[in-house]
Amino acid sequence: MDPIRAYHDGSLAVQTRVGVREAAEHVGRSIGRGIRPVAAAFLELQPMLVIGAADPDGRVWSSLLTGPPGFVRATGPTTVSVAGGVPARDPLAGAFAEGRPTAVGTLALDPRTRRRMRLNGTAEATPRGLAVQAREVFSNCPKYLQRRELYAGEGPAPPEGARRDTDHLTPAQREFAGAADTFFVATLGPDGADASHRGGNPGFVRVLSPTELTWPDYQGNAMFLTLGNLETDARAGLLFPDWATGTTLQLTGTARTEFTATGRAVRFTVERVVEREHASPLRWSPPEYSPANP
Length: 294
Description:
CATH architecture: Roll
Order of helices and strands: HHHEEEEEEEEEHEEEEHEEEE
């Protein structure tokens, strides 16, 4: 196989600015192209998968796919199948077609064990769902991941409720995002798409207006994949799950990184909002907050 190019120029620029190039080079050696047996076993246990991609209009979204354990499984050293594909009412429903590989970022995250695995590459539709071809596979540490127990919903999904589309956050949506302890962010860069996790204590996301919010960029693994992508392409998508009800709040827009003397923050401008009631059948317990949360 060809060697992995761990970072593109955007990530390298952020790493250099922050002063973590040496640490990033060390971490980058963990990125591989193949799916190891332990990773394949982890995937088959998961009832959910977060993906990130652009819709046919070029907007970037982060979406939540769910199913019985085994709905995501490795079918070869670099291939994964996702049974069911993207739900028809999801903003990414039209993003993938047969015979047309499309950039995708995926994140398998298990709140029960605080483990997560990222697999980025391309995906195309199949009669059964999605076929994903891996470009890079790696695990992340459990930092800022809240522990939760799953108590319902690993079976087939019941019919979901209403879908609401707007170009701004309603007061209820602003309150929900501002109280979140977890969300997911999708970005695009020269090497493809990426889906990542952000976590903290409630209030770490600040909603500044109906069309703008911000969050701090906490110290992580020094890779700067998300911020690196934003250096080259401002498009981004956010996913806020309601762990208790299965409702999802999806935002698409643009984001930029703000560097200050005290740290970094990302400012996101909302262009479109999709709220889907009971989009996920999964029901999770209240969180046990990560000891790493500031």
